[in-house]
Amino acid sequence: MQQKAVLPEVPKKSKIKTSAGDKVISVITYVVYSFFAFVCVYPFYYIIINSISANNLSERGKIIFWPQEIHFKNYTSVFNLPGLWDAARTSVLRTVIGTVLTVMISAFLGYMFTRKTLWHRKLWYRMVTVTMYINAGIIPWFLTMKLLGMTNNFWGYIFPMIIQPFNIVLCKTYVESVPLELQEAAEIDGAGTLTIFFRIMLPVIKPIMATIAVFAAVNQWNAFQDTLLLMSEPKLYTLQFVLFQYINQASALKALVSNSTSSSAMMASLAHAATATSIRMTVTVVVVFPIICVYPFFQRFFTKGIMIGAVKG
Amino acid sequence: MQKAERRIDYKKRRSYIEFLYILPFLVLVALFSYFPLYGWIYAFHDYRPPFPITNETFVGFKWFATIVNNPVRLKNVLRVLRNTFAMSGISLFFSWFPMVFAVFLNEIKCKPFRKFVQTVTTLPNFISWVLVFAFAFTLFGTNGAVNSVLQEIGIISKPISFLKSTDHLWFKMWLWLTWKNAGWAAIMYLAAITGIDEQMIEAAKVDGATRMQIIWNITIPSLLPTYFVIVMLNLANFLSNGMEQYYVFQNAFNQDYIEVLDLYVYNMATSGTGMYPLSTAISILKSLVSVVLLFITNTASKLIRGEGFI
């Protein structure tokens, strides 16, 4: 009885009280998050508008909000730089080969580690997963990779990266969620271990393979440290590495600019002649472009990946 | 009898064959994950690159001793430890940021705006440190956007070289790290928020709780277990901040403050021949401390939460 008398008053009171406070909070959150979004987007936008604006303006930092005197000469001149095509090819090759192998191996090992018939299954599974916590250090790693002939060798980008215990765990958990009857039925029909994997498992575990593929591709594309440690032959440099050199070795870049443009500098206007800044910006766009293109389509896979990880860990 | 035996035989054969299928991959694991541990022996030898290590080059713990005995080196190691502790300490101190970011992002009622913010703040996580540095270089360089805007408004008269100055360097490094990771780290908390019981929030609303009261008394407490795991992982990785970020941002002017342990090990090894053993020795010490930290934090987690995170 008493409650009934009090009830109508409480919401009323709280409504007045909260709406004022709520409004302030709302406004603040919108402002703050707009700022965060701007901070995250602007660098991408800045690089892109600078790479297509007049080079004599971009060099002096005059392009800030929108592009001016739009031209695409920078993109043609960047691909005339010696070494950039090689770097692009290396980056694409390592991304494609590395991703395919990582996905297939993760799926296969994830499946095999669920096979009760596998000899000493638990031992091998532990042997693979423990490597998540093993880290010898950069220099011991480099010295042993040298012993294995992985220095100045394209496969040095692939072999050390393709067995990723975390991905194997993800696949194993996923395979375990598939009803065992599916395998048993195939076995009664006489299917062997490999047939079950290729014919039955692969189609079923496609979602987790897509997630792993996206992560593996991003990792391969972004890898920088392995080039730094293992590769000294310019032919094997990746785009990331070449970009870093362009940023960090201003003098080398200047020489490159004057070399590649000296013949055409007379004809090209000041707005189109390549400068150190224009080359840096344009190469940056070239390196970041695949990520920006892929990101909107695969965002749900990224999110899914961290969810599974969160549930596991 | 015979039939049963044959069946067991077949089963055994099959389990061996399955082992043969995974054997090549186990070999890869052995070569690329376990074999690098063999590289630790270089710390106990007087190794000079073109010449292989032999019994004569064995020097025992000489290199470990020089870390402490050589005053210049000891000073350097202490400097690098200071930087490592500072950067990890700042990260740990602000580790609540992604959680708060997620909590207030969830308060935004307009769904398209919320989705947009979430999408664009997650994007930086997927670009490499080299690209982050490329952005930093073009935005904060002496003729970048920031300097030219500041000059235009008249706040400064001469361009500031932000990337060379050591002012607030540790904090700036944290800012870059946060720019890259915070949106991504927030996703986990956002997932945890959707798991909170709606009825609890409804009940609180009926009782007249304000939004801040709901956040403070319901949302945050439900996120604490996740936050706790993050803090423990931060502690376990206290000495390993990785080298990539600091490698790309380092230059002759800021090196004294930016060199963390991982970067120091690399810089030393590349500074001259004959430095491999010493940097390996430091690597080993770091690995040992890290393993101890991992066990301590995992045990702490088991005691407090009832389960570890390994």
Instruction: Bin the helical content of chain B.
Output: over 70%
**Helix and strand element order of chain B:** HHHHHHHHHHHHHH
**Distance linking N and C termini of chain B:** 46 Å
Question: Most extensive chain contact?
Answer: A-B, 92 and 94 residues
Evaluate the radius of gyration of chain B: 26 Å
The low-confidence runs of chain B, each spanning 5 or more residues with pLDDT under 50, are none
Largest sheet of chain A: none
The whole-number mean of residue pLDDT values of chain B reads 88
User: How many beta-strand segments of chain A?
Assistant: 0
Short description:
The complex is a heterodimer of chains A (313) and B (310). By secondary structure, chain A is an all-alpha fold.
Description:
Chain A is mostly helical. Chain A has two domains: 2-58; 73-312, MetI-like (MetI-like fold). Chain A is built from 16 helices and no strands. Chain A has helices at residues 2-6, 9-51, 55-58, 73-78, 84-112, 121-129, 138-147, 159-162, 165-177, 180-188, 193-204, 206-222, 225-230, 239-248, 250-265, 276-312. In chain A, helix 5 (84-112) crosses helix 9 (165-177) and helix 5 (84-112) packs across helix 14. The longest helix of chain A is centred in the first third of the chain and has 43 residues, at 9-51. Chain A is globular. The relative contact order of chain A is 0.13. Residues 1-17 of chain A have low confidence and may be disordered. Chain B is mainly alpha-helical and 310 residues long. Chain B has two domains: 2-44; 80-129 and 168-305, MetI-like fold (Orthogonal Bundle). Chain B is 71% helix and 0% strand. Chain B is built from 14 helices and no strands. Chain B has helices at 2-34, 62-69, 71-93, 97-106, 111-122, 129-140, 145-153, 169-194, 198-206, 211-236, 244-249, 255-258, 261-271, 276-305. In chain B, helix 10 (211-236) packs across helix 14 (276-305). The longest helix of chain B is centred in the first third of the chain and has 33 residues, at 2-34.
